[in-house]
Amino acid sequence: MTANNSKNNNQNNEDLIETARRVLTIEAQSIETLKERIDENFLKAVEIISKSKGRVVVTGMGKSGLIGRKIAATLASTGTPSFFMHPAEASHGDLGMVTEEDVVIAISNSGETDEVLRLIPFLKYFNLKLIAITGNPQSTLARQADAILDVSVKEEACPFGFIPTASTTATLAMGDALAVALIMKNGFKKEDFAFFHPGGSLGRRMLTKVKDLMHREEELPVVYPHNLMLDVVLEISSKRLGVAVVVDEREKILGIITDGDVRRGVQKWGKQFFEMKASDIMTVAPKSIDEDELAAVALSIMQKYSITSLVVPSKEGVLRGIIHIHDILKKGIF
Known about the structure:
This protein is of the alpha/beta class. Helix content is 48%, strand content 15%.
């Protein structure tokens, strides 16, 4: 590579970096200007949706449609029943999905998209509320809407000035603002979000309970106060939970012996350790948790006390299970 080629490549790279920074600056500014437009129209849109007994139907063509799909998904996952309807398909039968109780959010930067405008007579016939997200507040779509969310931008971020970039970013941000406002309006909680996301990490944290993961019955390493430590070690080894729970004849929890207790005991007493009784070694009142508590809480307790398992007693103190940190981590609860 010649010196001139190297110089040209460096210049090209600098130009690309500068272009990318310019794009981000323009798009950031497009969002910043939206703050001035959070007004009575925005509040009206929130009120329309929150009072609706139906769903939010989001529609839009092209890039607006792609943004609309994301807005519909965000609304649905935050407690506002929503779905996306392609405006072209709507005219060929998909309007049958719309009910008289629904609200429609129509997205069109120009406000003059033919496929979207063709839906207006149907919406008016059934007296459906229409929220317009548009970059043209004087457009046909805006004039027909019950609430207008103005997402107009000073310029697009592309070098040609017309490829949807800043405008789609502004639309997406406005959709997020609407969804979050509805979260506040409807009293939606993170527990509700987890309910709609059972497969996600938050869902696992918020929905998985101790009883869903704990070891039970034959899996439990159980010993009695009179058992020799040799038998306790065999029980710990066979059940592979790193502990043995000491119980009385009614299965009430008396204490716990961990593999750490075994190692320390051997170091201290040598062979004599194996002739000692469980009651001599056990730790009384072991850390415990209710079976209806969240597994995430169990993990927090384990981390706080640097332990790897918790006993799960009944209200009467009878051993019902053991939950181990490995079971929680395998579930993906972090």
